[in-house]
Amino acid sequence: MPDTLAQTLGVLAALMAGLWAWQRFHYHSYWLLIGFPLVALTVRATWRKVALGCGLTKKRQRWWFTTVPGAIASTGIVKVRRRFQRVAVDTKPWMWLPRPTRHGWRVTLWTLEGQIPADYAQAAERLAHSWGVHAVRVSSPRPGRVVLAATMRDPLVRVDHIPRSGELLKVSVGRLETGGLWSIDFRTVPHWINAGATQSGKSNLANALIVGLAPQPVALVGFDLKGGVEFTPYAPRLSALATTRGESVGLLDDLVALMVDRMGLCRTAGARNIWQLPPGVRPVPVVVLVDELAELYLMADKSEKDEVARTSTALLRVGQLGRAFGIYLFLSGQRIGSDLGPGVTALRAQCSGRICHRVNDPETATMTLGDLDPAALVSARAIPAETPGVAIVASQDGQWYRARSFYVSEHAAEYAARTWSHLAPEWAEVIRPGHSSGLDEADLSELLTA
Ligand SMILES: Nc1ncnc2c1ncn2[C@@H]1O[C@H](COP(=O)(O)OP(=O)(O)OP(=O)(O)O)[C@@H](O)[C@H]1O
């Protein structure tokens, strides 16, 4: 008997060790074959209790078949009559079968009458605790349906390395909490705000952009009013760099002139934007990276007022019209709020791409993410300091995601800037009046008629 017990214990220990090793060394297959089926069964089995506990059920009147004691007959025999009764029961939203995802599972629910996706979003934290998962995110693919996406553990604690980007003006800068790539695509979302407290990962994201854009046929322009300490090392790949207020005013004037020039080019060609021009005529796209936007707006004394007003107007014009003419903004800063002046509020409205790293105060999150789902604001404030690079991203699909940028050291960005320095077009060439396309009048009309 003791032998049998020892054997059983040995087999169990070997089994446990095997499962541990499987999970440790090939989590993906372990999750699909062992982890997920168990979790799916638990989720289905506990759904009634969990929905009840999270306030997602509704009381409904049901006909209920029951047996009740009837009258006691004179013979002394108890008569039992079958009866249908109307009773109130708790109804849970109908749940489809859960499906596995890379970092957890997702399941579709049919909402009950009077429910909206926000009811489920409000209960998301309760759902996560009830099922013992890292987080539950709620989305609604169509009216009457809600999708719960659960992540078993935070997928953003470690993210891998930056992949090479294939498309023009599109850079994969990190990973979303769903496991998908987080991409910044300037052709879809032309202007971006990148906000966050100090040491939250703003510069790292700018580094990732520089590494991604450096091998592409684009002109990069930097505004670095931290005295140039951030962007000067990347100067070999930058076509222009402003490090003082005075230089910024000049460079912004150049950008506005460039935009006006490109307007003329598009008008001549009958195109609405540079992407409708034939490839041989199309001017090079320009990505403008601004570090510490507030510095462009701060005034030490009244003598700077005119300069600030010029800067503000020029940036706003680029924000309003730049998209069509291939000029894109990526604005980084700790605070990008109305306290910097009305110009900033108007500029912010032009930036549909929003990235909010860790913030110290709720106003900054609100300023950056606007009137997005309140849960996004809560999530932005909950980003821990130990995970720099984690941010809330308002995406082009109207949803918001937690995401983390790939770690890109200054050395990696400097290396990319040096390696691809030959692709940096001369600024004087980019802005040469009447030569947005780099062709003279005769070539231009020949190409347009071809
Ligand atoms: N995605 C990331 N993964 C790992 N480490 C990161 C990530 N992003 C940033 N870090 C690290 O966090 C620190 C702060 O990052 P970064 O300099 O980008 O912050 P910042 O917001 O630009 O700060 P500041 O406003 O002070 O310049 C750096 O040491 C950086 O290496």
From TrEMBL:
Source organism superkingdom: Bacteria
Keywords: ATP-binding, Membrane, Nucleotide-binding, Transmembrane, Transmembrane helix
Regions that span the bilayer: 6-22, 29-47
InterPro entries in UniProt: FtsK/SpoIIIE/SftA, FtsK_dom, P-loop_NTPase
Residues engaged in binding ATP: 196-203
Pfam families found in the cross-reference section: FtsK_SpoIIIE (PF01580)
Protein's recorded name: FtsK/SpoIIIE domain-containing protein
Stretches assigned to the FtsK domain: 179-366
